[in-house]
């Protein structure tokens, strides 16, 4: 019978990875210099600077196992895998082998979103926040994050070192109710006021579609840009065209980019050459912004009015 030689090398089969705070059983084999399993009951010492090593078994047919519990708090805390060195040593101390166990952050536990500052219509804001596991470690890089406003998704981004950042441009003044969601975990909502970027916008309306005389007409005018909802002031150009209402009735449709429309009857007389439509009236009709105007005549007769300018008071 051939007796095995002294322990000369230690071969460890390491697991692919373990999550922070998780436990894994690691196996290995002790061999003599010829590759034969060492004698039954050979002791091998296992240590680590991070985490906890326990339940190291003496060899049986050269095989041994030990339990490794990963640390809860990763030193790197950067959202990437951390490799933790494990040192295995013979009882005599003359044989040493080092291996590594990869530790990943745990699953998403906490999501935070930061309030936006100085938000204004038409100007991009940066939406930032963090995503961590239950131990406060940054979650794995590339974790998907959905940004919501009032529960509706407005952007998708991903984490880098546990942080996320994306831009969003508010189109209407008011209040944003921002939140973030990752891995099925949602952040608390934060309220961010959005101010108008300007106090008023004035647009020149091309005259031709709005000069309406006769028994049949319909005219459309589109704004040069989609604008926030505001009080509308329609001003007609008395110097350019005559203004009259005779037997017909004129109507005006105000529409947003999403197809919502507010329909009104144009008044027979204006105060100071203009008529107005309030922001509250448009919002009640469901308008999200202001995009186009359509004028039309609903019944027979002769009707005419000319509007050259529309001022949007935000």
Provide a descriptive summary of the structure in words.
- The chain has 314 residues and is mostly beta strands.
- The chain folds into three domains: 9-103, Sandwich (Immunoglobulin-like), CATH 2.60.40.10; 110-195, Immunoglobulins (Immunoglobulin-like), CATH 2.60.40; 200-313, Jelly Rolls.
- The protein is built from one helix and 27 strands.
- The protein has one helix at 279-284, and strands at 9-13, 18-19, 23-31, 44-48, 52-54, 63-69, 82-90, 96-104, 110-113, 119-120, 125-132, 144-149, 152-158, 163-168, 174-182, 185-186, 190-195, 200-204, 218-228, 231-235, 244-245, 250-255, 261-265, 274-277, 289-297, 303-304, 309-313.
- Strand 7 (82-90) and strand 8 form a beta hairpin.
Give the overall average pLDDT. 81
Strand segment tally: 27
Radius of gyration: 36 Å
- List low-confidence stretches: 204-216, 238-247
Brief overview:
The chain contains one helix and 27 strands. The chain has one helix at 279-284; strands at 9-13, 18-19, 23-31, 44-48, 52-54, 63-69, 82-90, 96-104, 110-113, 119-120, 125-132, 144-149, 152-158, 163-168, 174-182, 185-186, 190-195, 200-204, 218-228, 231-235, 244-245, 250-255, 261-265, 274-277, 289-297, 303-304, 309-313. A hairpin with a 2-residue loop joins strand 12 (144-149) and strand 13 (152-158).
Key features of this structure:
6-stranded mixed sheet; Immunoglobulin-like; 314 residues; 4-stranded antiparallel sheet; single chain; Jelly Rolls; mainly beta; 2% helix
């Amino acid at each position: 019978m051939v007796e095995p030689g002294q322990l000369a090398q230690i071969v460890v089969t390491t697991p692919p990875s373990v999550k922070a705070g998780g436990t894994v059983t690691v196996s290995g084999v002790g061999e003599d210099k010829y590759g034969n399993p060492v004698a039954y009951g050979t002791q091998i010492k296992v240590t680590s600077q991070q985490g906890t090593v326990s339940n190291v078994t003496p060899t049986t047919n050269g095989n041994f196992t030990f339990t490794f519990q990963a640390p809860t708090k990763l030193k790197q805390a950067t959202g990437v895998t951390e490799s933790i060195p494990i040192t295995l040593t013979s009882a005599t101390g003359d044989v040493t082998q080092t291996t590594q166990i990869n530790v990943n952050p745990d699953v998403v536990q906490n999501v935070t979103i930061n309030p936006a500052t100085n938000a204004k219509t038409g100007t991009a804001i940066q939406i930032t926040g963090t995503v961590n596991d239950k131990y406060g470690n940054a979650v794995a890089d590339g974790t998907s994050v959905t940004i919501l406003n009032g529960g509706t998704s407005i952007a998708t981004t991903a984490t880098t070192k546990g942080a996320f950042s994306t831009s969003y441009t508010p189109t209407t003044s008011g209040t944003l109710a921002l939140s973030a969601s990752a891995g099925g975990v949602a952040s608390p909502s934060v309220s961010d006021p959005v101010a108008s970027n300007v106090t008023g916008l004035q647009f020149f309306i091309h005259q031709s579609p709005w000069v309406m005389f006769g028994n049949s007409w319909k005219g459309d005018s589109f704004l040069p840009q989609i604008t926030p909802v505001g009080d509308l002031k329609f001003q007609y150009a008395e110097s350019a065209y005559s203004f009259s209402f005779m037997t017909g009735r004129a109507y005006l449709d105000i529409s947003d980019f999403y197809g919502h429309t507010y329909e009104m009857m144009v008044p027979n007389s204006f105060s100071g050459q203009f008529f107005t439509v309030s922001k509250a009236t448009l919002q009640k009709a469901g308008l999200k912004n202001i995009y186009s105007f359509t004028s039309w005549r609903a019944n027979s007769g002769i009707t005419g009015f000319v509007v050259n300018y529309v001022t949007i008071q935000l």
